[in-house]
Specification:
The protein is an all-alpha fold. It has helices at 2-22, 33-55, 62-75, 77-84, 90-99, 104-125, 129-149, 161-168.
């Protein structure tokens, strides 16, 4: 009798999991016009910095693109979908959303590049000791944030139902 209950619970959990994965993401557009304008402004500034980061070494592209996607999701459905369909930034955002984080290999790459830029900036470019200490401290904080607070994703996620359908068609 207990086995039947466990089976029922497991099947209910599996059904709930499947229905959650199949459900499309619904954007929660802010109703308040002032907040929506602030989200839109923040998204635009973040997107501008992300685009600048494509050509400026050391300026992070993906975190700024993710921030702009989050802010656009709160302010404008049209801009959010435009950003997701952008050929340069869209794949980065979709990959992060699909995997729900950054792989360990990706984190190591981010930390290595960030560390190289921080060390180069603080020991080659900056000669004023207080600024050098500030840059090294911020670099250490960045390392801690990336390693411990950015979600870690799996290396190769199993394809979802949508990806299977697209491959079959």
């Amino acid at each position: 009798m207990d086995k039947n209950r466990n089976r029922d619970k497991n099947s209910t959990l599996q059904e709930a999991t499947v229905s959650m994965q199949e459900k499309k993401v619904r954007l929660e557009i802010e109703k308040n016009r002032i907040r929506r304008a602030l989200y839109l402004t923040g998204g635009t500034v973040s997107l501008s910095l992300a685009i600048l980061g494509v050509v400026v070494p050391g300026l992070p592209v993906t975190p700024l693109a993710l921030l702009s996607a989050f802010l656009f999701a709160k302010s404008s459905e049209r801009l959010y979908h435009w950003l997701l369909n952008n050929r340069i930034l869209g794949p980065r955002i979709k990959n992060y959303q699909r995997r729900r984080g950054v792989t360990r290999k990706g984190k190591v790459g981010i930390i290595a590049f960030m560390g190289a830029m921080v060390l180069f900036s603080s020991f080659v470019v900056i000669h004023y000791m207080p600024v050098r200490i500030l840059i090294l401290s911020l670099g250490l904080i960045g390392l801690i944030v990336v390693w411990f607070f950015v979600p870690t994703a799996i290396d190769d996620p199993a394809p979802s139902g949508e990806e299977k359908d697209e491959k079959e068609v």
